[in-house]
Amino acid sequence: MAVVGQGVPTRSSTGAVLSPAMVPHPREELFSVLVVDDHPLLREAIAARLRSMGAGTVHEAASVAEARARAQANGPCDLAILDLGLPDGSGLDLVTELRALGWNRLVVLASSDDPYAVRSAFQAGAQAYLLKSASPAVVTDGVKRVLDGGVYADPTVAPLLATGTRVPGTDNTPRELSAREVEVLQLVADGQSNKEIGEALSLSALTVKSHLSRIGRKLGTGDRAQMVALAMRAGVIR
């Protein structure tokens, strides 16, 4: 934060010289934000809260198309808050797009506390997942955490993240999969080859094979179809 007169004597309006310690600090630097939600009242409420937190410029969009237009016209904002259920497309796809365009602070504000939705948001590049039912204090805490460069999960969904990647193996014993292993399994479920998975995740085909071998050992099967079926039944992938 810039400090007026830091280390330099400053004159008051009467001409008296003030020491640096007596010069008042200005307000913290304002941040810019894009709010994407198709419900006008909720969008306006979020915008008002952000302004109370120091947002100087608040852009609003009610759809994926409007958000893309705003992003193209204004470039990356300091923060974006996005709904997942938009009328013309997936909010998750929008998170991925904005992330690729240099938006580094993305907050998902959603209705669902489904573990798959939560994990998918973070995997797409979000830094926070908040529920629309959250209290103003939780929303404020989450936004502040992201603005400070951290990550945040709504207290209601945080426990889901801890258990959301557990898949019962062929012996019905739950095994914990890493976020990368879940990504690999999802792409296997999408029908992609090891080479295609590697290209999508910036990994070598050999590394993808190693991930699959590790997943197979955890789940007790080397069969790709069975690994996918087990993960789907557990709700880890779609």
Automatic annotation (TrEMBL):
Annotated ranges, domain Response regulatory: 32-147
HTH luxR-type domain location: 170-235
Modified residues (4-aspartylphosphate): D83
Gene3D superfamilies for the chain: 3.40.50.2300, Winged helix-like DNA-binding domain superfamily/Winged helix DNA-binding domain (1.10.10.10)
InterPro entries, sorted: CheY-like_superfamily, NreC/VraR/RcsB-like_REC, Sig_transdc_resp-reg_C-effctor, Sig_transdc_resp-reg_receiver, Tscrpt_reg_LuxR_C, WalR-like, WH-like_DNA-bd_sf
Pfam families noted in UniProt: GerE, Response_reg
GO MF term (any one): DNA binding
One of the GO BP terms on file: phosphorelay signal transduction system
Keywords on record: DNA-binding, Phosphoprotein
PROSITE patterns the UniProt entry points to: HTH_LUXR_1, HTH_LUXR_2, RESPONSE_REGULATORY
Name by which UniProt lists this protein: DNA-binding response regulator
UniProt organism field: Pseudonocardia sulfidoxydans NBRC 16205
